[in-house]
Design brief:
Length: about 260
């Protein structure tokens, strides 16, 4: 019961900050010294998603969260120090603190935000397709999410800088391929662990990871549109419209209450 109350207030606090973050980021109104909120806005939703995994899958949820966090951190560390598999890039000191001075702490939480949300959304959009299509769909949804966030992260908030270029938003194609591949591995591990519990059947309701995925997709879409990143903004709008249509088709409504979002 105590964990429900804590989760509820963390969720309420996140929604409050998210609502303020939209206009502040969209219209460049972030006050001096407010840059630390960038880390908060990745750590809190990523932590909430990890907590949902733990509540849903127990010890296997812990293991899944650790695999996502550690696996993404190690891959990002390799990427920054070698240029593989994402391409050559560097973090700019906006997201602090950094793990051993290389990868920001917020980045593993960002992967915790994206991968379970993409996996749950894939399952909800395609409820009857089975194991492998669900995982493949999750990897694709994670990559599409990255296509929307990259222009904001690189050109607006300047979280990181690419040291090479590519045809998509000036970002190397290897980045999006690597995003798909890493998301596939992490989603595969999460789905395999989930199948070992008795809680796997999906409730036909919006859940917390999907809500967090969609809220962040909406945030980055809006910031793209207000900063002339129109291609990424248009992609975000198309994704949100498509997801909304499919969820409406399945008669799945939007929920704000924490207890509704964690129901199994």
């Amino acid at each position: 019961m105590a964990s429900l109350r804590v989760g509820h207030w963390v969720w309420v606090g996140y929604l409050f900050v998210w609502a303020w973050s939209v206009p502040l980021l969209a219209f460049d109104l972030v006050p001096a010294g407010g840059e630390f909120m960038a880390t908060v806005m990745l750590v809190v939703p990523g932590g909430l998603t990890a907590w949902w995994l733990i509540q849903r899958y127990g010890k296997l949820g812990w293991l899944s969260s650790i695999i996502i966090a550690v696996g993404s951190w190690l891959t990002e560390h390799l990427g920054v120090t070698t240029g593989w598999p994402f391409g050559a890039y560097q973090y700019n000191g906006v997201l602090l603190p950094e793990i051993v001075g290389v990868v920001p702490l917020a980045i593993p939480f960002a992967w915790l935000l994206v991968v379970p949300g993409a996996l749950e959304l894939s399952r909800m959009l395609m409820p009857k397709v089975g194991f492998w299509p669900t995982v493949l769909g999750a990897a694709s949804l994670a990559m599409l999410f990255d296509l929307v966030i990259e222009p904001v992260a690189v050109y607006v908030n300047r979280y990181w800088t690419w040291l090479e270029t590519g045809p998509m938003f000036g970002i190397p194609t290897a980045n999006f391929v690597a995003w798909w591949g890493l998301a596939f591995i992490l989603a595969l591990a999460t789905e395999m662990l989930g199948q070992r519990t008795n809680n796997l059947p999906q409730s036909p309701k919006l859940n917390l990871p999907i809500a967090i995925y969609l809220l962040n997709l909406a945030l980055f879409t809006i910031v793209n549109l207000t900063h002339q990143q129109l291609a990424a903004g248009a992609l975000g709008l198309l994704l949100l419209a498509g997801f909304g249509w499919r969820l409406h088709q399945r008669q799945i409504g939007w929920h704000w209450r924490y207890d509704q979002l964690i129901q199994q």
